[in-house]
């Protein structure tokens, strides 16, 4: 055995160990001067079926991948790429598409000639492609699940902070916002007031018209509260059955009392439809509290506004009370 045969043997062994199938084409005649053999055997084809010319090979390649191969070959032939590399699918004898990769080079290209011996190797990358596809499917699923989680979080947050009957802030949200607004007002030495409004004799509404009408009254009053305040500054919430809180930043006692009076008058004049085309109206008693040297926390404000509210109820209802500082 001479050196050439020994080297050939070594090369064949290395190719086999690496799972590489060597090919060689003549770019001038289009002839396949060394056919890939292992991959065709692997795909279930017999010796005579594994194309002697490129056109025959292309018949087995996935139609979507042919332009990719042509583009990679043309780029290398034109000298735009140092190597030819591409990935494509070949149809197995049983109809499956199997992924392969090609890596090749024109070996006899020199400055003066464009070369014609195009040599390369083909190797199976089906497992890798399958794992990539599984991974991207899993990623897409994760993205969908994340979006769903974010949506559910938003819903949960809204449920935790909103009163389900009226859609305005619930007691928990009012307590949280109240504390932070008072801290802000104290830090900036700005005024802040709180109104606590309670529907008068609401039990009678329920007893006379029924609970569903009572609910409608609560919604109508919540709506009137919302319409009475500055939508981007003040915060309106339902803090009890028929009790509402209105947090009024940048508002002193006098202005808060004026707003409370307008709200009281609005609600008193509000026609609310009850059962059987009847129309009813309700009134509000409102307690007003404002930050002062003796009222320096949201808790203090709530206590003061509640006391003022009891005063309003004691004075015959349908009125506004502000405790003297
Ligand atoms: N329809 C309805 N009624 C409620 C709801 N929450 C509380 N109530 C009712 O509100 C009524 C409150 O009655 P009271 O606390 O006695 O007060 P009031 O009748 O308004 O009398 P004053 O506050 O003294 O003017 C009760 O009958 C509660 O059942 C609600 O979500 N829907």
Automatic annotation (TrEMBL):
Taxonomic placement: Bacteria, Pseudomonadati, Pseudomonadota, Gammaproteobacteria, Chromatiales
NCBIfam families reported for this sequence: GGDEF
GO cellular component annotations of the record: plasma membrane
PANTHER family: DIGUANYLATE CYCLASE DGCM-RELATED, REGULATORY COMPONENTS OF SENSORY TRANSDUCTION SYSTEM
Residues in GGDEF domain copies: 190-325
EC number(s) given by UniProt: 2.7.7.65
Protein name: diguanylate cyclase
Annotated GO MF terms: diguanylate cyclase activity
InterPro entries registered for this protein in UniProt: Diguanylate_Cyclase, GGDEF_dom, Nucleotide_cyclase, PAS, PAS-like_dom_sf, PAS_fold_3, Rev_trsase/Diguanyl_cyclase
GO biological process, one term: cell adhesion involved in single-species biofilm formation
Catalytic activity: 2 GTP = 3',3'-c-di-GMP + 2 diphosphate
Gene3D superfamilies, A to Z: 3.30.70.270, PAS domain
Requisite cofactors: Mg(2+)
Source organism of the structure: Halothiobacillus diazotrophicus
């Amino acid at each position: 055995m001479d050196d050439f045969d020994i080297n050939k043997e070594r090369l064949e062994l290395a190719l086999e160990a690496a799972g590489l199938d060597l090919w060689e084409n003549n770019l001038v005649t289009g002839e396949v001067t060394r056919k890939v053999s292992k991959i065709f055997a692997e795909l279930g084809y017999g010796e005579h079926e594994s194309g002697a010319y490129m056109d025959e090979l292309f018949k087995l390649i996935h139609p979507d991948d042919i332009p990719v191969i042509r583009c990679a070959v043309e780029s290398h032939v034109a000298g735009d790429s140092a190597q030819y590399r591409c990935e494509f699918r070949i149809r197995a004898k049983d109809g499956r598409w199997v992924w392969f990769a090609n890596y090749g080079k024109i070996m006899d290209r020199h400055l003066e000639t464009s070369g014609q011996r195009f040599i390369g190797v083909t190797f199976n990358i089906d497992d890798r492609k399958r794992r990539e596809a599984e991974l991207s499917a899993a990623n897409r699923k994760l993205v969908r699940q994340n979006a769903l989680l974010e949506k559910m979080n938003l819903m949960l947050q809204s449920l935790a902070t909103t009163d389900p009957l009226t859609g305005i802030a619930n007691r928990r949200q009012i307590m949280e916002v109240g504390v932070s607004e008072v801290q802000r007002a104290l830090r900036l030495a700005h005024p802040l007031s709180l109104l606590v409004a309670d529907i008068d004799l609401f039990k009678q509404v329920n007893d006379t018209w029924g609970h569903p009408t009572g609910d409608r009254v609560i919604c109508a009053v919540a709506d009137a509260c919302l319409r009475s305040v500055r939508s981007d500054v003040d915060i309106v919430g339902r803090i009890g059955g028929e009790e509402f809180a209105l947090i009024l930043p940048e508002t002193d006692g006098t202005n808060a009392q004026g707003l409370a009076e307008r709200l009281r008058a609005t609600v008193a004049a509000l026609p609310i439809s009850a059962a059987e085309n009847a129309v009813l109206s309700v009134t509000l008693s409102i307690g007003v509290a404002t930050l002062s040297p003796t009222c320096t926390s949201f808790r203090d404000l709530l206590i003061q506004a509640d006391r003022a509210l009891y005063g309003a109820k004691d004075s015959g209802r349908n009125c506004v009370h502000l405790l003297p500082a």
